[in-house]
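Changelog excerpt

This revision adds worked examples to the README so contributors can see how folded entries look when concatenated. The first example is reproduced verbatim below.
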Amino acid sequence: MGENGVWRAMLRPGFTRSALPWRAAGYLLVSGVAGALLCAGLLVAVAVAGVLAVVLVGLPLLAALALVGVPFAAWERRLLRLLGGARVADPHQVPARPGLPCWLRLRYREQATWRELGFTVLAAFLLWPVDLIVLGCALVVPAYLLGALPLLLVDGEQVNVLKVWMVRSPLVAGALGLAGLAVAALCAYPLTAVAAGRAALVRLLLAPGGQEVRIGELVSSRARLVDAFEAERRRIERDLHDGAQQRLVALSMALGLARLDAPPGSALADQLDTAQREAGAVLAELRELINGIHPQVLTDRGLPDACADAADRSPVPVEVRFDVPGRLAPAVESAGYFAVSEALTNIARHSGAESAEIQGRYANGLLTIDVLDDGGGGADPAGGTGLTGLADRVSVVDGALTLNSPPGGPTLLRVEIPCTPLSPPHCT
């Protein structure tokens, strides 16, 4: 139930007997107490930071206070569930890389962070007194009126109602109790209205803006496209492997059997031999094509073995060392493999290197792959070596590609991809 639903519920019969007024009271109570605690905490933190700023120690604390709105806003968005409201999405982007420095840089640049800080200041110094005053009036006044008669019977002489009216008559006290029931029912309306208004303010200031929603949609759609692209690559590879490749193998075998049946040294035997060699060449090209689309070893055994297989096929001697915690996401493994494959192709064609080395490691949520060669260096992404397209491919999975290739060498290509392991750890 969103805020519009709350307003509609207030117009329905039986609203005062529903649970909504009590939920609104709970919402204002929790938000009011949280705001009061926040106010006290901010005052103390600002005072301490101001004193320590004289010796520069308080400056980091003052900078950190700018981010106090991030957890408080997350709390406020969750608090909306007390009113039965729809979930409010987190407006923040996910950092491209793990680690506190990257998280801090992103948060300080986001508009959502400063909106949340503004709301936090508003909640700490203005909203919480309003919450508690409205709650107090809506609950304390009816409670005083309802308790007039019981208090009078206990005291035996008089009761001071609302600290402004001395009542000595049980009839008057009973009438005030009946009035208290009516006042409680009436107070349910402004109480719920204030809660709904506050919830609407939270949604207005703390929900993602139009640009943030579009960014979130673009990120989600890109992830879906990457997954669909990888699934389609695997399907094409499987169809070629199980279909066209098997037919070519059968054709090559049939040509070989026919050549055995042909008279030795005849023109027919020579033609069948030529046809068999051509079929073998086509089969080899098809296998290279399949391997370039999506190697089966990558699907079956993962990134380390796939990179080792690529290194075995390289004309340049390559040493491979990997330390990764099991299998990674298919898109991550695919991006890492093709980065290594393209790098080895460039080493063989352009570098003049005598040896190369591949190092892969996983730490703190980041997969890092280094490809180092002892060639002549001077690699230029703008020179048509495929590095630009490779960087685009890595960026699709939120990764980054860096190249250090001074003239004379050596050349280091590094790929960094944030990811999470999918299987238990093992080392290769």
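The second example, added in the same revision:
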Amino acid sequence: MNPPDDRVADRLFCLLLGVYGGGGLLNAIVNLLVPRLQITLGLDYAQALSVHLAYYSSYLLFALPITLWSIRIGAMRAITAGLAIMASGCLLFAVAQGQRDFAFVLTTLLVMSAGVTFLQISGNAVTTAFGGSVRMAPRFTLLQAFNSLGTVIGPLIGAWFLLGRAAAAAPVQPFLIGAVALLLLAAAFWAHRDLLPRPRSSPLLWSGLGALVRRGRMQAAMGAIFAYVGAEVTIATLAVDYLMRPDTLGQSPLAAGRLVSLYWAGAMAGRFAGSYALRRIGIRHLLCAACIGAASLLVIAMTARGSVGGVALLAIGLCHSVMFPLIFTLALPAEDKDAALASMLLCMAVVGGAVIPVVTGLLADRIGLVPSLVVPGLCYGVIFAFGRATTPRVPGAA
């Protein structure tokens, strides 16, 4: 994909702000479904965390056909399709919530996440049009900051409807409102569907998939994305239960759900700051520092009590903030023709958000919530190893 002129690039960036911000808001609300289902249906940790198994497994199930279709119809049309599918999932979820059918809830989440997979693959591929690693990293990090803005607003809204007084009367309203907003955004992308040229798929493009998968750099990057998403989703989801514990903050479900917005606020602030810091600090150095910070805060959360542990757990969001854009930037192949396939492979690795929370939940049911947090702790070691071992492709990325 050839870099667009500045006017087109600015318009693309503005459109993507809605995608990243809306996606963050929806993901944060989905995280609150875990404590809600525990309260309303009496599920244990492993059962409730199967919400993430349904929501994130689509990255593994649908990434290949979605990439094939996205390459055929073009990124802008693919994003439009993804937004429409997400809107449909929101409407179906409203029906499922009304019926209190857990299996139906999981099915609708899978539909919703299929739309998110469209956005991840096509949206991330579009960002590669803004230039090489040094130019792309700050802008991609800024997009991720707006994603975090959505995740900050999400718990503030979602906690009231899912965990507060409105939970019994109107638990579906956030999803109905979300469906309308997603359809409006889909209309905006459809209106700009020809902003970028539609690429041509070819046998040569797909013949390079095997070679791309075999590259050690890509394998390591997929492992790092798997670990990062798994750790982030696990911490963000279990933070509500952690903050409700009498030996930490002893908060009510509603108050704990709202406090999780501080976790995402840290991620938002870190991404804005990270976009600026990347002008002075190398990509690898910043990624490794974030891993060390996250692991240190997690150790404090697992060993301290009272407000110290609660603050430490929420502060991990600050360290998570820059991990995804930095891993993604370091993983990008040098050849533009491989960008779509690389984006697909990295999005498939997001399935870590389905696996790591369930593994943590199974462990939590056996040994307790706090000791089970060792699982996301191990994820930071995987990400750190990737950051240390990955050689930058361009000057200034070290």
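Reviewer comment on example two: The chain has one domain: 6-193+209-389. The chain has 19 helices and no strands.
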